[in-house]
Amino acid sequence: MKLAIASLLVGSAAAFAPSAPVGVRSSALNMAETATEPAKTYAKLPASIKPGVVTGQALVDLLDDAKARGYAIPGVNIVGTNSINACMEAAMKYGGPIMVTFSKGGGQFIAGKAVSNENDQASIAGTIAGAKHVHEVAKLYGVPVVVHTDHCQKAWLPWIDGLLAASEEHFAKTGEPLFSSHMLDLSEEPLEENIAICKSYLEKFAKVGILLEFELGVTGGEEDGVDNSDVDSSRLYTQPEEVFYAYEQLSQVPGGAFTCAASFGNVHGVYAPGNVDLQPIILYNSQKYIQEKIGSADDKPMKFVFHGGSGSSVEDIQYAIGAGVIKMNIDTDTQWAFWDGLRAYEAKYHDYLQGQIGNPEGPEKPNKKYYDPRMSLRAGEEAMAARLIKAAEDLKCVNVLN
Ligand SMILES: [Zn+2]
Protein backbone atom coordinates (compact mmCIF):
# COMPACT_ATOMS: atom_id res chain seq x y z
CA MET A 1 0.00 0.00 0.00
CA LYS A 2 2.80 2.38 0.95
CA LEU A 3 4.49 1.63 -2.37
CA ALA A 4 1.36 2.35 -4.34
CA ILE A 5 0.98 5.74 -2.65
CA ALA A 6 4.65 6.54 -3.24
CA SER A 7 4.39 5.83 -6.96
CA LEU A 8 1.19 7.85 -7.22
CA LEU A 9 3.00 10.78 -5.65
CA VAL A 10 5.91 10.44 -8.06
CA GLY A 11 3.47 10.21 -10.94
CA SER A 12 1.58 13.36 -9.96
CA ALA A 13 4.78 15.32 -9.29
CA ALA A 14 5.93 14.51 -12.81
CA ALA A 15 2.55 15.51 -14.25
CA PHE A 16 2.77 18.95 -12.61
CA ALA A 17 6.36 19.59 -13.68
CA PRO A 18 6.37 22.91 -15.60
CA SER A 19 8.44 21.73 -18.54
CA ALA A 20 6.20 20.88 -21.48
CA PRO A 21 8.83 21.18 -24.27
CA VAL A 22 11.33 19.07 -22.35
CA GLY A 23 8.57 16.59 -21.63
CA VAL A 24 7.76 16.31 -25.34
CA ARG A 25 11.38 15.83 -26.27
CA SER A 26 11.96 13.20 -23.58
CA SER A 27 8.90 11.22 -24.59
CA ALA A 28 10.17 11.19 -28.19
CA LEU A 29 13.50 9.94 -26.89
CA ASN A 30 11.75 7.28 -24.83
CA MET A 31 9.99 6.05 -27.95
CA ALA A 32 13.30 5.80 -29.82
CA GLU A 33 14.80 3.89 -26.89
CA THR A 34 11.95 1.41 -26.72
CA ALA A 35 12.22 0.84 -30.47
CA THR A 36 15.82 -0.37 -30.14
CA GLU A 37 15.43 -2.29 -26.87
CA PRO A 38 14.65 -6.00 -27.16
CA ALA A 39 11.06 -6.88 -26.30
CA LYS A 40 10.46 -7.95 -22.72
CA THR A 41 8.75 -11.26 -22.03
CA TYR A 42 8.29 -10.60 -18.31
CA ALA A 43 7.23 -7.15 -17.14
CA LYS A 44 9.42 -7.23 -14.01
CA LEU A 45 12.53 -8.97 -15.42
CA PRO A 46 15.30 -7.84 -17.79
CA ALA A 47 14.54 -8.50 -21.48
CA SER A 48 17.28 -11.14 -21.76
CA ILE A 49 15.24 -13.57 -19.63
CA LYS A 50 12.82 -15.74 -21.61
CA PRO A 51 10.68 -18.78 -20.75
CA GLY A 52 12.67 -22.00 -20.81
CA VAL A 53 16.26 -22.75 -19.85
CA VAL A 54 18.22 -19.65 -18.84
CA THR A 55 22.00 -19.58 -19.36
CA GLY A 56 24.92 -17.18 -19.84
CA GLN A 57 24.22 -13.45 -19.55
CA ALA A 58 20.48 -14.08 -19.06
CA LEU A 59 21.28 -16.12 -15.93
CA VAL A 60 23.58 -13.40 -14.60
CA ASP A 61 20.81 -10.85 -15.26
CA LEU A 62 18.31 -13.06 -13.41
CA LEU A 63 20.53 -13.48 -10.35
CA ASP A 64 21.36 -9.75 -10.31
CA ASP A 65 17.63 -9.05 -10.42
CA ALA A 66 17.05 -11.40 -7.46
CA LYS A 67 19.79 -9.66 -5.49
CA ALA A 68 18.51 -6.18 -6.34
CA ARG A 69 14.85 -6.96 -5.62
CA GLY A 70 15.49 -9.15 -2.58
CA TYR A 71 14.21 -12.57 -3.49
CA ALA A 72 15.88 -15.98 -3.70
CA ILE A 73 15.19 -18.74 -6.22
CA PRO A 74 14.33 -22.24 -4.96
CA GLY A 75 17.06 -24.69 -6.04
CA VAL A 76 15.44 -28.10 -5.84
CA ASN A 77 17.04 -31.55 -5.95
CA ILE A 78 15.26 -33.87 -8.34
CA VAL A 79 15.47 -37.58 -9.17
CA GLY A 80 13.41 -37.97 -12.35
CA THR A 81 10.75 -36.43 -14.55
CA ASN A 82 8.16 -36.49 -11.74
CA SER A 83 10.19 -34.24 -9.49
CA ILE A 84 11.51 -32.12 -12.41
CA ASN A 85 7.96 -31.44 -13.59
CA ALA A 86 6.77 -30.75 -10.03
CA CYS A 87 9.42 -28.01 -9.84
CA MET A 88 8.27 -26.36 -13.05
CA GLU A 89 4.59 -26.77 -12.14
CA ALA A 90 5.28 -25.00 -8.83
CA ALA A 91 7.17 -22.18 -10.59
CA MET A 92 4.29 -21.74 -13.05
CA LYS A 93 1.88 -21.45 -10.10
CA TYR A 94 3.97 -19.12 -7.92
CA GLY A 95 5.00 -16.96 -10.85
CA GLY A 96 8.79 -17.08 -10.49
CA PRO A 97 11.96 -18.78 -11.69
CA ILE A 98 13.15 -22.22 -10.50
CA MET A 99 16.49 -24.04 -10.38
CA VAL A 100 16.24 -27.73 -11.25
CA THR A 101 19.20 -29.31 -9.47
CA PHE A 102 20.81 -32.64 -10.36
CA SER A 103 22.97 -34.37 -7.78
CA LYS A 104 25.43 -37.00 -8.98
CA GLY A 105 23.27 -39.65 -7.33
CA GLY A 106 20.09 -38.15 -8.78
CA GLY A 107 21.61 -38.28 -12.26
CA GLN A 108 22.63 -41.89 -11.74
CA PHE A 109 19.08 -42.71 -10.63
CA ILE A 110 17.70 -41.23 -13.86
CA ALA A 111 20.00 -43.51 -15.90
CA GLY A 112 18.79 -46.46 -13.79
CA LYS A 113 20.22 -48.16 -10.74
CA ALA A 114 20.65 -51.45 -12.64
CA VAL A 115 23.45 -50.19 -14.88
CA SER A 116 27.10 -49.88 -13.87
CA ASN A 117 28.29 -46.45 -12.81
CA GLU A 118 31.90 -47.25 -13.64
CA ASN A 119 33.78 -44.02 -14.38
CA ASP A 120 30.54 -42.15 -13.49
CA GLN A 121 29.06 -43.24 -16.82
CA ALA A 122 25.52 -43.59 -15.43
CA SER A 123 25.73 -40.33 -13.47
CA ILE A 124 26.89 -38.52 -16.60
CA ALA A 125 24.34 -40.09 -18.97
CA GLY A 126 21.43 -39.71 -16.53
CA THR A 127 22.22 -36.08 -15.70
CA ILE A 128 22.44 -35.25 -19.41
CA ALA A 129 19.16 -37.07 -20.10
CA GLY A 130 17.45 -35.11 -17.31
CA ALA A 131 18.85 -31.82 -18.60
CA LYS A 132 17.57 -32.62 -22.11
CA HIS A 133 14.12 -33.31 -20.68
CA VAL A 134 14.16 -29.85 -19.08
CA HIS A 135 15.28 -28.25 -22.36
CA GLU A 136 12.42 -29.93 -24.25
CA VAL A 137 9.56 -29.10 -21.89
CA ALA A 138 10.56 -26.02 -19.83
CA LYS A 139 9.14 -23.51 -22.34
CA LEU A 140 5.69 -25.12 -22.01
CA TYR A 141 5.60 -24.00 -18.37
CA GLY A 142 6.28 -20.39 -19.35
CA VAL A 143 8.85 -19.77 -16.60
CA PRO A 144 12.64 -19.24 -16.50
CA VAL A 145 14.36 -22.49 -15.51
CA VAL A 146 17.98 -22.83 -14.40
CA VAL A 147 19.57 -26.25 -15.03
CA HIS A 148 22.05 -26.74 -12.22
CA THR A 149 24.17 -29.50 -10.66
CA ASP A 150 24.77 -29.94 -6.93
CA HIS A 151 27.83 -30.73 -4.78
CA CYS A 152 30.81 -32.12 -6.68
CA GLN A 153 33.82 -33.03 -4.57
CA LYS A 154 37.35 -33.50 -5.99
CA ALA A 155 36.99 -37.24 -6.64
CA TRP A 156 33.76 -36.62 -8.58
CA LEU A 157 35.19 -34.10 -11.08
CA PRO A 158 35.02 -36.67 -13.95
CA TRP A 159 31.21 -36.30 -13.63
CA ILE A 160 31.49 -32.56 -14.30
CA ASP A 161 34.00 -33.21 -17.11
CA GLY A 162 31.39 -35.41 -18.82
CA LEU A 163 28.67 -32.77 -18.39
CA LEU A 164 30.98 -30.00 -19.61
CA ALA A 165 31.71 -31.99 -22.78
CA ALA A 166 27.93 -32.24 -23.38
CA SER A 167 27.56 -28.48 -22.84
CA GLU A 168 30.41 -27.76 -25.26
CA GLU A 169 28.71 -29.92 -27.89
CA HIS A 170 25.36 -28.20 -27.25
CA PHE A 171 27.06 -24.79 -27.40
CA ALA A 172 28.61 -25.59 -30.79
CA LYS A 173 25.12 -26.35 -32.17
CA THR A 174 22.97 -23.73 -30.42
CA GLY A 175 25.24 -21.07 -28.87
CA GLU A 176 24.05 -22.12 -25.39
CA PRO A 177 25.34 -24.68 -22.88
CA LEU A 178 23.22 -27.67 -21.81
CA PHE A 179 23.78 -26.75 -18.14
CA SER A 180 23.24 -23.25 -16.78
CA SER A 181 25.55 -23.75 -13.81
CA HIS A 182 27.58 -26.30 -11.86
CA MET A 183 28.51 -26.42 -8.21
CA LEU A 184 32.05 -27.46 -7.37
CA ASP A 185 32.46 -28.32 -3.70
CA LEU A 186 36.19 -28.48 -2.99
CA SER A 187 35.66 -27.39 0.60
CA GLU A 188 37.43 -30.55 1.81
CA GLU A 189 40.64 -29.21 0.27
CA PRO A 190 42.82 -26.32 1.56
CA LEU A 191 41.40 -22.91 0.52
CA GLU A 192 44.11 -22.19 -2.07
CA GLU A 193 43.63 -25.55 -3.77
CA ASN A 194 39.83 -25.23 -3.61
CA ILE A 195 39.91 -21.88 -5.39
CA ALA A 196 42.68 -22.85 -7.85
CA ILE A 197 40.62 -25.82 -9.07
CA CYS A 198 37.47 -23.67 -9.22
CA LYS A 199 39.36 -21.06 -11.23
CA SER A 200 40.61 -23.59 -13.77
CA TYR A 201 37.06 -24.88 -14.25
CA LEU A 202 35.61 -21.37 -14.41
CA GLU A 203 37.96 -20.63 -17.32
CA LYS A 204 36.37 -23.52 -19.24
CA PHE A 205 32.83 -22.69 -18.06
CA ALA A 206 33.11 -19.04 -19.12
CA LYS A 207 33.84 -20.02 -22.73
CA VAL A 208 30.39 -21.63 -23.05
CA GLY A 209 28.40 -19.43 -20.66
CA ILE A 210 28.19 -21.72 -17.60
CA LEU A 211 28.10 -20.16 -14.13
CA LEU A 212 30.15 -21.61 -11.24
CA GLU A 213 28.86 -22.11 -7.71
CA PHE A 214 31.67 -22.82 -5.24
CA GLU A 215 31.69 -23.76 -1.56
CA LEU A 216 33.66 -22.29 1.32
CA GLY A 217 33.60 -23.95 4.72
CA VAL A 218 31.47 -27.05 5.10
CA THR A 219 27.73 -27.59 5.06
CA GLY A 220 27.09 -29.97 7.95
CA GLY A 221 24.77 -32.97 8.03
CA GLU A 222 24.32 -35.69 5.44
CA GLU A 223 23.12 -35.59 1.83
CA ASP A 224 23.44 -37.79 -1.23
CA GLY A 225 25.82 -40.19 0.52
CA VAL A 226 28.20 -37.49 1.83
CA ASP A 227 28.21 -37.39 5.62
CA ASN A 228 29.57 -34.23 7.29
CA SER A 229 27.80 -34.72 10.60
CA ASP A 230 31.06 -35.11 12.57
CA VAL A 231 32.98 -32.22 11.01
CA ASP A 232 34.80 -29.76 13.33
CA SER A 233 32.23 -27.06 14.10
CA SER A 234 34.63 -24.16 13.34
CA ARG A 235 34.57 -25.26 9.67
CA LEU A 236 30.82 -24.63 9.58
CA TYR A 237 31.52 -20.88 9.75
CA THR A 238 33.31 -19.17 6.84
CA GLN A 239 35.57 -16.15 7.44
CA PRO A 240 35.08 -12.91 5.43
CA GLU A 241 38.78 -13.04 4.45
CA GLU A 242 38.18 -16.41 2.76
CA VAL A 243 35.20 -15.06 0.83
CA PHE A 244 37.25 -12.09 -0.35
CA TYR A 245 40.16 -14.31 -1.41
CA ALA A 246 37.81 -16.39 -3.57
CA TYR A 247 36.09 -13.30 -4.97
CA GLU A 248 39.41 -11.73 -5.95
CA GLN A 249 40.78 -14.91 -7.57
CA LEU A 250 37.62 -15.81 -9.51
CA SER A 251 37.06 -12.22 -10.67
CA GLN A 252 40.29 -12.57 -12.67
CA VAL A 253 38.64 -15.01 -15.09
CA PRO A 254 37.45 -13.12 -18.20
CA GLY A 255 33.68 -13.45 -18.56
CA GLY A 256 33.50 -15.68 -15.48
CA ALA A 257 30.28 -15.66 -13.44
CA PHE A 258 30.07 -17.22 -9.98
CA THR A 259 28.06 -17.57 -6.78
CA CYS A 260 29.31 -18.57 -3.34
CA ALA A 261 27.99 -21.19 -0.95
CA ALA A 262 29.62 -19.86 2.23
CA SER A 263 28.79 -21.93 5.27
CA PHE A 264 27.27 -20.04 8.18
CA GLY A 265 26.32 -22.98 10.39
CA ASN A 266 23.96 -24.49 7.82
CA VAL A 267 23.32 -28.19 7.81
CA HIS A 268 21.79 -30.58 5.25
CA GLY A 269 18.64 -32.27 6.51
CA VAL A 270 16.04 -31.44 9.12
CA TYR A 271 16.92 -31.61 12.81
CA ALA A 272 15.10 -30.93 16.05
CA PRO A 273 15.08 -27.21 16.99
CA GLY A 274 18.20 -26.07 18.85
CA ASN A 275 20.62 -28.34 16.97
CA VAL A 276 21.45 -25.85 14.22
CA ASP A 277 23.03 -22.48 15.06
CA LEU A 278 22.76 -20.29 11.95
CA GLN A 279 24.94 -17.17 11.83
CA PRO A 280 23.86 -15.39 8.62
CA ILE A 281 25.63 -12.26 9.96
CA ILE A 282 28.70 -13.92 8.37
CA LEU A 283 27.22 -13.11 4.95
CA TYR A 284 26.72 -9.43 5.85
CA ASN A 285 30.24 -9.21 7.27
CA SER A 286 31.68 -10.80 4.13
CA GLN A 287 29.84 -8.37 1.84
CA LYS A 288 31.10 -5.40 3.89
CA TYR A 289 34.65 -6.77 3.88
CA ILE A 290 34.69 -7.25 0.09
CA GLN A 291 33.03 -3.88 -0.52
CA GLU A 292 35.73 -2.10 1.50
CA LYS A 293 38.55 -4.06 -0.09
CA ILE A 294 37.48 -3.34 -3.67
CA GLY A 295 36.03 0.12 -2.96
CA SER A 296 32.73 -0.80 -4.58
CA ALA A 297 29.51 1.24 -4.46
CA ASP A 298 27.62 -2.08 -4.41
CA ASP A 299 27.05 -3.13 -0.79
CA LYS A 300 26.47 -6.74 -1.92
CA PRO A 301 29.32 -7.53 -4.34
CA MET A 302 28.99 -11.33 -3.83
CA LYS A 303 25.99 -13.44 -4.77
CA PHE A 304 25.47 -16.06 -2.06
CA VAL A 305 23.56 -19.33 -2.12
CA PHE A 306 22.05 -21.04 0.93
CA HIS A 307 22.56 -24.80 1.36
CA GLY A 308 20.86 -26.82 4.06
CA GLY A 309 17.86 -24.49 4.19
CA SER A 310 15.34 -27.21 5.07
CA GLY A 311 14.00 -26.65 8.56
CA SER A 312 15.36 -23.08 8.83
CA SER A 313 13.12 -20.33 10.21
CA VAL A 314 11.57 -17.85 7.80
CA GLU A 315 13.29 -15.07 9.80
CA ASP A 316 16.75 -16.59 9.22
CA ILE A 317 15.97 -17.21 5.55
CA GLN A 318 14.80 -13.66 4.89
CA TYR A 319 17.68 -12.18 6.88
CA ALA A 320 20.07 -14.17 4.66
CA ILE A 321 18.29 -12.91 1.52
CA GLY A 322 18.93 -9.37 2.77
CA ALA A 323 22.64 -10.25 2.80
CA GLY A 324 22.69 -11.21 -0.88
CA VAL A 325 21.42 -14.80 -0.93
CA ILE A 326 19.89 -15.37 -4.38
CA LYS A 327 19.13 -19.11 -4.19
CA MET A 328 18.25 -21.56 -1.48
CA ASN A 329 18.66 -25.31 -1.90
CA ILE A 330 15.69 -27.46 -1.04
CA ASP A 331 15.91 -31.22 -0.88
CA THR A 332 14.84 -32.73 2.43
CA ASP A 333 11.52 -30.87 2.62
CA THR A 334 10.49 -31.77 -0.94
CA GLN A 335 11.60 -35.39 -0.44
CA TRP A 336 9.19 -35.53 2.48
CA ALA A 337 6.44 -33.75 0.51
CA PHE A 338 6.66 -36.19 -2.42
CA TRP A 339 6.51 -39.16 -0.06
CA ASP A 340 3.68 -37.58 1.93
CA GLY A 341 1.66 -37.24 -1.29
CA LEU A 342 2.13 -40.96 -2.04
CA ARG A 343 1.35 -41.87 1.57
CA ALA A 344 -1.88 -39.84 1.56
CA TYR A 345 -2.93 -41.33 -1.77
CA GLU A 346 -2.47 -44.88 -0.44
CA ALA A 347 -4.31 -44.03 2.77
CA LYS A 348 -7.26 -42.53 0.86
CA TYR A 349 -7.61 -45.41 -1.62
CA HIS A 350 -6.24 -48.23 0.56
CA ASP A 351 -9.22 -50.53 0.01
CA TYR A 352 -8.96 -50.08 -3.79
CA LEU A 353 -5.25 -50.95 -3.81
CA GLN A 354 -5.17 -54.44 -2.30
CA GLY A 355 -5.66 -56.45 -5.50
CA GLN A 356 -6.32 -55.99 -9.20
CA ILE A 357 -9.99 -56.86 -8.76
CA GLY A 358 -12.34 -56.28 -5.85
CA ASN A 359 -12.95 -53.20 -3.72
CA PRO A 360 -15.64 -51.86 -1.33
CA GLU A 361 -17.96 -51.34 -4.32
CA GLY A 362 -18.00 -55.03 -5.17
CA PRO A 363 -15.89 -58.22 -5.36
CA GLU A 364 -15.67 -58.01 -9.18
CA LYS A 365 -14.88 -54.30 -9.49
CA PRO A 366 -11.55 -53.65 -11.29
CA ASN A 367 -8.98 -51.35 -9.60
CA LYS A 368 -6.87 -50.44 -12.63
CA LYS A 369 -7.63 -46.74 -12.43
CA TYR A 370 -6.37 -46.67 -8.82
CA TYR A 371 -3.10 -48.59 -9.23
CA ASP A 372 -2.05 -47.00 -12.53
CA PRO A 373 1.34 -45.62 -11.35
CA ARG A 374 0.45 -42.22 -12.76
CA MET A 375 -2.19 -41.84 -10.05
CA SER A 376 0.10 -42.24 -7.03
CA LEU A 377 3.05 -40.48 -8.70
CA ARG A 378 0.82 -37.55 -9.62
CA ALA A 379 -0.21 -37.31 -5.95
CA GLY A 380 3.50 -37.09 -5.10
CA GLU A 381 4.04 -34.39 -7.75
CA GLU A 382 1.12 -32.33 -6.48
CA ALA A 383 2.30 -32.50 -2.87
CA MET A 384 5.85 -31.57 -3.90
CA ALA A 385 4.63 -28.61 -5.99
CA ALA A 386 2.46 -27.40 -3.10
CA ARG A 387 5.46 -27.54 -0.72
CA LEU A 388 7.54 -25.56 -3.24
CA ILE A 389 4.93 -22.83 -3.41
CA LYS A 390 5.31 -22.46 0.36
CA ALA A 391 9.12 -22.36 -0.11
CA ALA A 392 8.76 -19.65 -2.77
CA GLU A 393 6.69 -17.59 -0.32
CA ASP A 394 9.44 -17.88 2.31
CA LEU A 395 11.99 -16.86 -0.34
CA LYS A 396 9.85 -13.91 -1.53
CA CYS A 397 9.95 -15.45 -5.02
CA VAL A 398 6.18 -15.23 -5.67
CA ASN A 399 4.91 -13.12 -8.61
CA VAL A 400 8.37 -11.82 -9.44
CA LEU A 401 7.92 -12.22 -13.22
CA ASN A 402 4.94 -10.02 -14.02
ZN1 LIG B 1 24.24 -28.54 -0.27
Automatic annotation (TrEMBL):
Its EC number is 4.1.2.13. Its cofactor is Zn(2+). It comes from the Eukaryota. Keywords: Glycolysis, Lyase, Metal-binding, Signal, Zinc. Pathway: Carbohydrate degradation; glycolysis; D-glyceraldehyde 3-phosphate and glycerone phosphate from D-glucose: step 4/4. It catalyses: beta-D-fructose 1,6-bisphosphate = D-glyceraldehyde 3-phosphate + dihydroxyacetone phosphate. It holds the Pfam family F_bP_aldolase. GO terms for biological process: glycolytic process. GO terms for molecular function: fructose-bisphosphate aldolase activity; metal ion binding. InterPro entries: Aldolase_TIM, FBA_II, Fruct_bisP_bact. Gene3D superfamilies: Aldolase class I (3.20.20.70). Residues 1-15 form the signal peptide. Belongs to the class II fructose-bisphosphate aldolase family. Catalyzes the aldol condensation of dihydroxyacetone phosphate (DHAP or glycerone-phosphate) with glyceraldehyde 3-phosphate (G3P) to form fructose 1,6-bisphosphate (FBP) in gluconeogenesis and the reverse reaction in glycolysis. NCBIfam families: cbbA, FruBisAldo_II_A, PRK09197.1. This is fructose-bisphosphate aldolase. It comes from Stephanodiscus triporus.
